[in-house]
Amino acid sequence: MDDDMYCELIKNLRLRTTERDANIRVHAAIALTRLLEDDDDDNMDDDGNKEESVLDILINMIQYDPNPDVRKAIMCNLDISEETLPYIIERARDIDTSIRRCFFLTTMRNINIDTLNMDQREKILGWGLFDREISVQKACKYLLCEKWINEDCNKDLVKFLNYFDVMTSTIVGDAIYIYFEKYPNLNFTYNETEWNSLTSENAFLIKKYVEFCHQNKRDDKLDDILPEIIKLVEYLKKYFRKIVDLKQEEEDEKILNEFIISQLLGIGNSLDYADEMGRRVMFSCLRELLVSSEIPNSQIPTIIDILMKTALNEKDLIRVIIEIICDIREPIEEVNTLQDPTMETLINTKCLEIIKCLLERTDENLSDNPALSEINHSLIVPAIKSSEEYLRELGLNCLGLWCNFDMMMSLKIIFDLIMRHGFRAFEDVIINLGVNGKFTVNEIFKRCLRNTEGEVLSLAVSGISKLMLLKYFYDPQILQRLVILYFHPCTINNDSLRQCLSYFLPAFSYSSIENQEFMTSILGVCIRKLLKQYYSSKKDEMITPIQIGQQMIEWTDYRRVLSNDFYKAKSCPHARLAIKFLKIAENDNITIIKTICYLLNKLTLNESVETLVIKDILERAENLKERTTNNTVNNLLSKINSPNNKSSHYIIKKDDISDEDEDNMETEKDKSMVISEHDNEKRNNSSSNDSKEKTKEEPIDITNNGDKDNNDNNTVLNTNNIDDHHKTENDNNDNNGDNTPDDITIVDDELLN
């Protein structure tokens, strides 16, 4: 073929590579691969510009042509060279499965393992063995076992490993394991001479074979390759002495011996330590290795694993670890005198690595171990405050692991994180589990409040109280638990808990009208449960229901709110509390009714109470008159109907009201009602108006008559009679041998749930 015909042919093939028909592009690409050897990079087009070379066209097509047949045709026909090989290897990650499979089965058959560099071998194995398609994985395994190992390396695994850097490779271990699975009956034999002159490849191969035999329960194969435990310890000490004797400039040799020791430790981790003499010798050797500064931190996890197998028990292991850490930290005092912070950092880092590995593996209760607790305070906590980033990270990791065994520390950390960062610190948990997720922060708090350990419960109450007082969150169920715990007999001996709640509950209520309304919303459920508990408990285990009710009344008294505008409040908490008390009295016996009536007369209403609420209170109070002969109900009715009640100045514009479900744990909300003032012109006499102006800013106190000169016996409550009545009632119950009213069903499990 003369030059003119060749140039014309190349010119037309170039044009065909841009055709819309994929078949035409396939044939044009194959033809160009045949003419690639004669291609001249200096070809010029008709305008005198340099043309794109044939190789550039093919490389561009193998990378970007949209049709997989075109890319496959070029991959299979393109000659292998230093220029083309990287682009051919890229087809191992092609989006088309058939191309990837063809790459391993066809293309790589023509490429020997020694043609590739180490990085290319790693990539090919990694892409093929972890491909998403099973067919591609099988094709890669075929290339590995049949082509590279059996054909190119003549079944010599050590020779195969020489093509990789076994000390840093992340894939060659999987490759060897795959070969063992394909040929499980391989026989390895190593004599003493070979053990004394191990290379990185030999040591790596033995370790992988031992792991394979253990995982596949082929322990009978190990007798031909493994020495006795005592002999293995000798080899460990031999290569360890080599590291110690090496000079600082012989870094490569040191790294090699460190790797061999790591492989020997891996072999030791797979052994059975039934031999007592072998166990003791190995335990002593590992202790020596762990104390030494020549052993890198990367080998600490394997050493700890073997120590756990050779130690008598976990307590013995923890004791030994503490001794080892003390031995490692001994030089720190000398280091401080020499002012060498680098050495101190290295020592602390190694100690933290040891503690981290221990905490990851032990199940012992570390909080009961004083020596280990001391290490926590002297090593872990200071590490968190270190200026070294890696040391801080290790300290936090150790502290987090420590919290698996110490609930007190875990709670303190949770509360500190929320106080410092708010609930943003737990956003990922809340997002992943949803608002109703099992392990949201509020759910953790609820679980802690159900804890039976006094210290944990006290700490949980203290932390939750601070967060609620600082308005980090509001949860009616949690507030309800706090109120019940304050009065419940189970906390009678928990002084710190009750002291905390004795401050928190009034402080929370008095801080704002909103908090009082929130407190009022949960008191109905609380008083109901506490009444049940009171009548099911032994005498003197709880304060009386009247005392409990008086506490609740004080917490919800709007006059105690620390605010300048509390007289202008749009709602009266005691009005809602009255309805709650009356609802409880509707279905209970006479004892509860009289208690409720006594508490009702201690409530204070103001002029902001809506007429419809007053009407509801009156109707419920009237229903109680038929069930008791006590004057407390009459006192309540007369005071609400007193002329001092400014609620009579309002009329109803919308008069629908519905009963609230008291057993609902959610915050109760009163239905809004639209009310308006009467026209002042409709007032009948000026004297009445004058009286109203004088009392406009005065609250209605049900404990008073509203008129200091009025001493009507129908409206003044004789508390002595009530107290005497309760005393007589309780005495009668005690004589009957049962202080529980007949109408009350006692369900202890409900009280703190």
UniProtKB/TrEMBL annotation:
Subcellular location: Chromosome
Residues of the signal peptide: none
Family matches, as Gene3D superfamilies: Leucine-rich Repeat Variant (1.25.10.10)
Chain positions covered by the region annotation Disordered: 651-753
Biased composition annotated in UniProt, kind: Basic and acidic residues: 666-699
Residue ranges with Low complexity bias: 712-721, 733-743
Keyword vocabulary terms for this entry: Cell cycle, Cell division, Chromosome, DNA condensation, Mitosis
Record family assignment: Belongs to the CND3 (condensin subunit 3) family.
Xref: PANTHER family: CONDENSIN COMPLEX SUBUNIT 3 (PTHR14418:SF5), CONDENSIN COMPLEX SUBUNIT 3-RELATED (PTHR14418)
Protein name as annotated: Nuclear condensin complex subunit 3 C-terminal domain-containing protein
Native source organism of the sequence: Neocallimastix californiae
